[in-house]
Design a protein that fits this description.
Elements lengths: L3 E6 L3 E7 L6 E7 L5 E5 L2 E5 L1 H10 L25 E9 L14 E3 L2 E3 L3 E2 L2 H7 L4 E9 L2 H19 L8 H10 L1 H14 L22 E10 L8 E8 L5 E6 L4 H20 L3 E4 L44 E3 L14 H20 L6 E9 L1 E12 L1
Parallel strand pairs: 5-15, 5-16
Antiparallel strand pairs: 1-17, 2-3, 3-4, 6-11, 6-14, 7-8, 9-10, 10-11, 12-13, 16-17
Length: about 400
Amino acid sequence: MLTLKTSIYAHATVVELLSSEDGSKIERALVRTFEGKEIYFKAKQFIISANALQTPRLLLNSKRHHPNGIGNQHDNVGRYYMDHNLVPSGNFVPHDPSFINRLRFYDMQGIVGASVLGKLNLSPEIMRKEGLRNFAAMLFPMPWSQSDLDAMNSVSALKLHLMFNFTRFPKNLGTHLLNIFRGRNRLFRAVYESIRYNVPILLGLGRGGWSRIANNEKKYNRLEVLALIEQSPSPDNRVTLTDEKDELGCPRIKVHYTWNPQDIASIVRAQQIMAEALVETGLGSYEPPKLPAESVKTLTGTHHMMGTTRMSDDPRDGVVDRDCRVHGVENLYIAGSATFPTGGYANPTLTNLALSIRVADKVKEALTHLSKNLQYLFILFLLKSPLFMTVLSHKIR
């Protein structure tokens, strides 16, 4: 029976993994601190769980016995980077605005401690027939008045700016303040509803509750169709090291990321199919999106970083096997969405958890077969800022 004693070392950044001379297993991890200290951790098993940017950075920087980086014998580490972008896909305008009151299914709700949101999906049959990527549309009520919409967008934009640039005013501050003044009545109403009904002041992704308020037809007359889309894996979308070093002497990374023409064509066709289906219901009309599908290249993603150490049965096609163990390295595992061979459209969290459980089972199995002497399991992961790589060390008896 395994018993664990856990030690967590914060502000301890793993900068390199050191393997045996033949490269078949990891023996130590080199850790540096901002105070200039260097520490070596020894273990029997190693797990990396540091997202799809920092994981390839560490592997590529570990070159002492792997000239191209650990797991990179076939030049796959860092490649096939993917994200889920949000694509505005037009508006659905019900003939009867009160119809919005019947769409609670598409409002984000808390169910058994989880957030649940209904979406419109393409059927598997249509996707296969048309050769389309995954595409799922969310519906968000939009105000009758353009001034109300401008005011809410300005509040959202200022909030986002202050989160990251609180020491500087935005260049278009005057426009935002004018929009807020013109839509002040709607904003005051939103604040009142937030206090009384416990709903967000601003509508949008991650903010639900509008269906708990009656008479929504007095405020909203259409639904924005916002799509979550799948990006196909491309070897040209990749993370590489640069010659520039960070404060710990590690090479900084460069990310090359774009959308190929086939993916953009898939978005266009999926929007057409979705529009036709909405109109065929006879419940309303459809307004096409103002932005072309190619705008996906500049739109903000959801930061669902995936790929870069993809899973494959053949080492020539990826970095880890189906147990998330790095090809050719017997005691190094990668847990997380960096191992995804494809991204789908849905949030990766549950799949991450499932793969982490798989890794835990495999590591437990490996440790059980080792001798009964004191063993160590070494895990490294990220805490929000990539500057702070945290080390989790398990002493196993």
